């Protein structure tokens, strides 16, 4: 029986099934921190807030900070769940597109705030690049350990 490839559909589906809920759990944990920091009422929609995004209000600032920090922390999920540098950007784009769809569904309106779009697009790019790099370095480390074990 051969090694299961990272590109097999069942592997991708299983990893997506773990990554997407983990990403939104992280998003809600970060949102909870900013809800407490800004003393906001909890309504469960802060991760999907785009109408008041970065508009100067406490809710808008919390939405900006939540989105930015969640996307900056997500590479930690990528290295523990995805474990593949060649597929990291696929997972990132998938979760970003899902986030756009969920933001539109939760708010019942299409995101039209340019700050929201700029933040989501730039954080998606950052997440993709950092995830690829971290997973690549992790793969190099695993390869080096295998080579050391074979040479010993």
Automatic annotation (TrEMBL):
This is Uncharacterized protein. It comes from Thecamonas trahens ATCC 50062. It comes from the Eukaryota. PANTHER family: SYS1, TRANSMEMBRANE PROTEIN 244. Its main location: membrane. Keywords: Membrane, Transmembrane, Transmembrane helix. InterPro entries: Integral_membrane_SYS1-rel. It is a multi-pass membrane protein. The chain crosses the membrane at residues 16-38, 62-82, 89-110, 116-138. One of its GO terms (cellular component) is membrane. The keyword Ribonucleoprotein does not apply. It is found in: Membrane.
